[in-house]
Write a structure and sequence with these properties.
By secondary structure, the protein is an alpha+beta fold. It has two domains: about 130 residues, Diaminopimelate Epimerase, Chain A, domain 1 (Roll); about 130 residues, Diaminopimelate Epimerase, Chain A, domain 1 (Roll). Helix content is about 20%, strand content about 40%. The protein has six helices and 18 strands. The chain has an 18-stranded mixed beta sheet that branches.
Length: about 270
């Protein structure tokens, strides 16, 4: 019976039951894609990250939601680095990850034990005159955004944090938004400037990727960094307001890269058998 080491880690959290759970599966060689997808479906968290040692040093890294492989995932990268530093025996202060679609990523240990990820900054464009997308978002989310951006995801900006907390979207409608845009359909990030102990408050709905609402989303905050950089001094403290959990991270735009800092906590260790 095949077996892998297994850990579940709450990423962008300093305690259990906060942030976003990610499952980590370290391997010597990746199993077949359908096996990885089946394992991710069985785990049934936002993402399962698979690790395999790279011949040239560092680690290969792939991410799967319960329904699909994704090109970039921040919280599961943070969780994978946390596993390598705390459990997997990685001794240097920096880890290199090699990915299929997002190039080389790195994670380093920084102040007070936090980890800092180095990710690509996405291209975005403002959708100032597309009334149809504003109307669709207002209908699906129950609130009308004041500004909308297209990029890896749809980014909807609202007037105040209270609107972000109050969002109760029609997820079936959200899933159909974005088919005419660069963004993958059904993946909508929402943000407002301000919040308690934060510069930005956000949420992320991703029924298009098999996730109704993601508790903490590093890849979305790469786009947030692009959106807020013209207005806020860097670094920017962000609170992702998933009901009942909540996640904190710090982001900074550095040229064509985004630096994202956060913490993680291991909550489960064991063996995955199939």
């Amino acid at each position: 019976m095949p077996a892998f080491k297994f850990a579940q880690i709450d990423a962008f959290a300093t305690r259990a039951f906060a942030g976003n759970p990610a499952c980590i599966i370290p391997t010597e060689n990746f199993p077949d894609d359908h096996i990885m997808q089946s394992i991710a479906a069985e785990n049934n968290v936002s993402e399962t990250a698979f690790l395999a040692p790279a011949e040239t040093g560092g680690w290969y890294l792939r991410w799967f939601t319960p329904t699909m492989e994704v090109p970039l995932c921040g919280h599961a990268t943070l969780a994978a680095a946390h596993w390598l530093f705390s459990i997997g025996g990685h001794s240097s202060e920096r880890i290199i990850f090699h990915t299929r679609w997002s190039g080389q990523l790195s994670v380093r240990v920084c102040r007070e034990g936090q980890l800092e990820m180095d990710f690509p900054a996405p291209e975005i464009r403002a959708l100032s005159n597309d009334e149809a997308i504003y109307d669709a978002l207002a209908s699906a989310l129950g609130e009308r955004p004041v500004k909308v951006f297209d990029g890896p995801y749809i980014g909807a900006v609202f007037e105040n944090p209270e609107q972000i907390f109050a969002l109760s979207p029609d997820l079936a409608a959200v899933k159909n938004i974005g088919s005419s845009l660069l963004a993958e359909p059904g993946n909508v990030g929402c943000l407002a400037f301000g919040g308690t102990n934060s510069d930005v408050t956000s949420r992320f709905f991703a029924p298009g990727s098999g996730i109704d609402e993601d508790p903490a989303t590093g890849s979305w905050h790469c786009m947030v960094a692009r959106i807020v950089a013209p207005r806020l001094s860097l670094p920017v403290t962000c609170f992702q307001a998933f009901p009942g959990r909540g996640a904190m991270m710090t982001i900074a735009l550095a040229g064509d890269r985004v630096k994202i800092q956060g913490s993680a906590v291991t909550v489960i260790e064991g063996i995955f058998r199939y």
